[in-house]
């Protein structure tokens, strides 16, 4: 993986203005066993180690009802990733591929998404399996997995009930 | 769905500081058939209408290699959603559920995620099916679907090759 001052052969960065189109609010932190980027698995596994998703107290009440779901989607901010690479060389062999054809943390908006298994909820903390991010990663969002979720609101005209 | 000046019975909003923990850069716009929120389907369907994901020119080269994937993940910014609701009442019947137990656009960081079918790529535009967002929605990210993607980088110690 490339760092701010290190481009691999063939990789291409672009000059951009500082980002400022919208602002995020971190809503908690994720605790994982991995303190260094080189220790993180490349992709999380649902039989991986337990990790803890610690919500800020203001948002604890927003977890009400989440216990009904086995699988949930987490969004988090990959805060140590550069954001200016258009082409990357995952194998560092001179061959490159476009940033959007990779799930690398290096991307214009370094947001990680994972589907994880929700083991249990302990107050304002979710205990999950399936993550691959660094210890201390800022949390952005928690949602039911789209496959398990059926909208609670009434259907709209033209929608059938089994999408 | 609640708007900025309209709380349904039982819903709860919180006071928060303006968000400022991280900044997003929009990388394009999404063109859909839906101009009003009440026209959007509640969840996208892979057999839904074609939509166009128009990348800014600076990022066109970052699409290289994406054509290998049938299913891709899109992240986008739900720019007309309030961000302060902890509990919501989807049916407007006095019963509420926590924001994180819903896939409502109303959430502290209103980021939508969809898995869509990639029909074709036309220059810097992706033609896809499966979206449910408003016409003009700002694009944040494009990734291969995690289920279809195998990391290109070499495995790390302890990882087997078929995660």
Automatic annotation (TrEMBL), chains A, B:
Gene3D superfamilies: YaeB-like (2.40.30.70). InterPro entries: TrmO-like_N (IPR023370), YaeB-like (IPR040372), YaeB-like_sf (IPR036413), YaeB_N_sf (IPR036414). Residues 24-154 form the TsaA-like domain. One of its GO terms (biological process) is methylation. SUPFAM superfamilies: YaeB-like. GO terms for molecular function: methyltransferase activity. Keywords: Methyltransferase, S-adenosyl-L-methionine, Transferase. NCBIfam families: tRNA_TsaA. PANTHER family: TRNA (ADENINE(37)-N6)-METHYLTRANSFERASE. Belongs to the tRNA methyltransferase O family. This is tRNA (N6-threonylcarbamoyladenosine(37)-N6)-methyltransferase TrmO.
């Amino acid at each position: 993986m490339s760092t701010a001052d290190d481009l691999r052969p063939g990789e291409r960065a672009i000059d951009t203005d500082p980002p400022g189109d919208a602002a995020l609010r971190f809503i908690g932190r994720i605790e994982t066993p991995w303190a260094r980027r080189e220790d993180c698995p490349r992709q999380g596994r649902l039989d991986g180690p337990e990790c803890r998703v610690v919500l800020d107290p203001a948002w604890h009440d927003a977890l009400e009802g989440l216990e009904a779901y086995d699988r949930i989607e987490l969004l988090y901010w990959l805060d140590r990733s550069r954001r200016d690479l258009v082409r990357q060389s995952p194998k560092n062999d001179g061959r490159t591929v476009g940033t959007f054809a990779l799930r690398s943390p290096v991307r214009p908006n370094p947001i990680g998404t994972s589907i994880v298994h929700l083991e249990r909820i302990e107050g304002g903390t979710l205990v999950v399996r399936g993550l691959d991010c660094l210890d201390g990663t800022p949390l952005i969002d928690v949602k039911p997995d789209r496959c398990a979720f059926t909208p609670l609101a009434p259907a709209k005209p033209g929608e059938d009930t089994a999408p």
